[in-house]
Every structure is written in C-alpha cells, then in structure tokens.
C-alpha cells in the first residue's frame, strides 16, 4: 500500500519559488494499479523522484505499508529503497553485463550471496518471460525485452511496491501492450501496489484500476477508473473518451448534445430508445466506445433536430440512464 499525503516539493531558482508538487495526496492499495497522468511540467517526474527516494520532498509523507520513507535518515536510504521497485522509460542496462548479471545487480548491492542470487535471477527471468536469455547481452535484445529485464531487476529485492515512470513511452504499440500486460500480471501474482506515471491514455485504459490527474503540482481529479470515466464533463472522462473537435454547425440544423451512455449497447441503448420515443432521428456526429472495468461507456456528440427541444431530450435521456448536456453552440450563437 502506498499512501502519499500532502507531498510538497519547492525548488528555488533565481529568487523564484517553483512549486513542482503543491500538496499531492493519493493512495494505491495492494494488488492494484494507479495511474498518474499529466501534461509536461505537471510534476510527474518530481513525484517519481520523491517516491523513489531519489529526491527529498520539502514536506509531506510517503508511506509504504504504514512506514514513512520520506524522512528516513540518509544512512538508511539504501535499505529503504529496496522496498520500492522502479521501472524507468529506458531500462538503462549495463551493456557489458549479461542479462542475468544485470538482474543480479541490486542483489549484489544488497549483499545477497552468489547461490541465492542465481536462484532469484532464474526465478525473475522466468517471471518476465526471458528464461532463455540469461547469458545474452543487452545489445542482443529488443526494446521490449530490455524493458522486461528492467522489470525483473526492479523486482529483485522483493519490493512492496512498483513505481513505473513512463514504462512504455519508448515502445511500439504491440510491445507496449505486451509490457502493460506483464505489469498487470506481475501485480496480480505478487499482490503489489503499482503506480504508473504516464502521459498515454491507452496505458490508463489498459491496466489502471484508478487514476489521478496531476496539474501544476496538484491532483485535480482522482478516482476509480469507471467512476472518473462515467463523470460526464469531467476532465478525465473527456481525456479517456476523446471525441474529435467539433466543426460549428449552422443553427438551422439543430442543437448538439454530449451524451454519455453506460447502458449496454444494443437495441435498448438510450439513444435508440429516445429516437423511438420522439419518432425522430438523433444522428451521431462523433462517437467513441470503451469497455472499461466491466462497463461499456459510449460517448457521443448527437444532433437534435430543430423540431425537438434539446432540454426535453436531455431529461428523457436521463430517465433512460444516459447523462447528457447541451454542448457546442451553434454557428449563429458564436456570431
Ligand atoms: N531541479 C529543478 N529545479 C528547478 N525547477 C525544477 C526542477 N525539476 C523540476 N522543476 C520544475 O518543476 C515543475 C515540474 O517539473 P517535472 O519535471 O516534475 O514535470 P513533468 O510533469 O515530469 O514534465 P515532463 O513530462 O516534461 O517530464 C516544472 O515547472 C519544472 O520546470
């Protein structure tokens, strides 16, 4: 379990205060993956550095299973770091060492004796699907395989939590999915609390149980995946269920609605039912469907013909279980 409370990191630069983290609070239970997403400059790297004990926070706590690691004495830092496995964007392997020796490195630092090290390395390489690559060197491996080595190395000291900093940003889409599935599999097998820093919505959708949006050093939205996606108009909902930008429509065509439908698809879907009720077409101008956490989310931009009052359609859709709002202004209103 990771519990971050009111974490602050202030940098001072030429008489200027930079509040890279301005009071971040979040929790990651065991056996779950929490995603932190944010744009460049939001504070993601600072958060990882503070959590990985590579940098000291200005204030706040970072508890791993109830023990605050943010304030351990410098002499205890190395031991405290063993409780955290860290996976970076690039595995940064030693080119001159074999794969087995790369994975063994943290065990050497921890003073684990040779035979125990060898057994642990064999177990870890098996866990990440590289059982037959022990004697190879990093240059002989693909990017995805190198990242598997990075994950095995992060797990070498039996950490309580796994921190992943943009773990798939340097990989192609197929390899990305393989690595994400491996992280999810390891989480389930070892019951780890996993925190993934990413700017990719795909990562959140594929493996995260919960997610936080970081902005200017603050968590501005957070919650279980299905909860944040189902919040019509929410920032995370819009990011995770993206629609293309709307071209303004002439007002004569009608009004547009943003609809979020979580009733299951099929002929009972709210939109189809509303079309029947009003005996009118409600054309979908843009739409996206995601299956997340056992729920199907359909976000649509829908045209309401001038013959219907959009507010009445909104209210009817609500009765059918779909949230909606009157959205884009028509071109006449813009003018
Ligand atoms: N060592 C430092 N000294 C001064 N300012 C810093 C330092 N490190 C980060 N910052 C500032 O803190 C803020 C957060 O930076 P950070 O690198 O954590 O963001 P990020 O979300 O990781 O961005 P990116 O995705 O581009 O890496 C930025 O305004 C950055 O300029």
Automatic annotation (TrEMBL):
Signal peptide: none annotated. Residues 2-241 form the ABC transporter domain. GO terms for biological process: amino acid transport. Pfam families: ABC_tran. GO terms for molecular function: ATP binding; ATP hydrolysis activity. SUPFAM superfamilies: P-loop containing nucleoside triphosphate hydrolases. Keywords: Amino-acid transport, ATP-binding, Cell membrane, Membrane, Nucleotide-binding, Translocase, Transport. The keyword NADP does not apply. PROSITE patterns: ABC_TRANSPORTER_1 (PS00211), ABC_TRANSPORTER_2 (PS50893). The keyword Membrane applies. InterPro entries: AAA+_ATPase (IPR003593), ABC_transporter-like_ATP-bd (IPR003439), ABC_transporter-like_CS (IPR017871), MetN_ABC (IPR041701), MetN_ABC_transporter-like (IPR050086), P-loop_NTPase (IPR027417). SMART domains: AAA. PANTHER family: AMINO ACID IMPORT ATP-BINDING PROTEIN, METHIONINE IMPORT ATP-BINDING PROTEIN METN. This is ATP-binding cassette domain-containing protein.
């Amino acid at each position: 379990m990771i519990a971050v409370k009111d974490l602050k990191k202030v940098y001072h630069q030429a008489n200027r205060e930079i509040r890279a983290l301005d009071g971040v609070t979040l929790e990651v239970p065991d056996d779950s993956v929490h995603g932190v997403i944010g744009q460049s400059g939001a504070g993601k790297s600072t958060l990882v550095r503070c959590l990985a004990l590579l940098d000291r926070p200005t204030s706040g706590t970072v508890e791993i299973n109830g023990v605050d690691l943010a304030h351990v004495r410098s002499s205890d830092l190395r031991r405290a770091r063993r409780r955290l496995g860290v996976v970076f964007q690039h595995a940064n392997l030693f080119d001159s060492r074999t794969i087995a020796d790369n994975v063994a490195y943290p065990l050497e630092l921890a003073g684990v004796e040779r035979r125990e090290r060898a057994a642990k390395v064999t177990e870890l390489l098996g866990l990440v699907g590289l059982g037959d690559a022990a004697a190879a060197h990093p240059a002989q491996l693909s990017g995805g395989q190198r990242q598997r080595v990075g994950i095995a190395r992060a797990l070498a000291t039996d950490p309580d939590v796994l921190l992943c900093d943009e773990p798939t940003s340097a990989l192609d889409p197929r390899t990305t999915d393989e690595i994400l599935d491996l992280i999810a599999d390891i989480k389930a097998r070892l019951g780890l609390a996993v925190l993934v820093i990413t700017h990719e919505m795909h990562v959140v959708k594929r493996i995260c149980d919960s997610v936080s949006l970081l902005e200017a050093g603050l968590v501005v939205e957070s919650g279980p995946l299905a909860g944040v996606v189902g919040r019509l108009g929410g920032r995370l909902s819009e990011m995770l269920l993206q629609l293309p930008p709307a071209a303004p429509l002439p007002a004569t065509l009608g009004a547009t609605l943003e609809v979020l439908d979580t009733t299951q698809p099929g002929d009972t879907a709210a939109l189809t039912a509303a079309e029947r009720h009003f005996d009118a077409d409600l054309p979908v101008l843009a739409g996206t469907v995601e299956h997340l956490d056992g729920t199907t989310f359909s976000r649509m931009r829908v045209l309401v013909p001038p013959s219907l009052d959009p507010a009445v359609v909104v209210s009817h859709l609500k009765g059918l279980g779909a949230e909606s709002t009157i959205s884009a202004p028509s071109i006449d209103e813009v003018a």
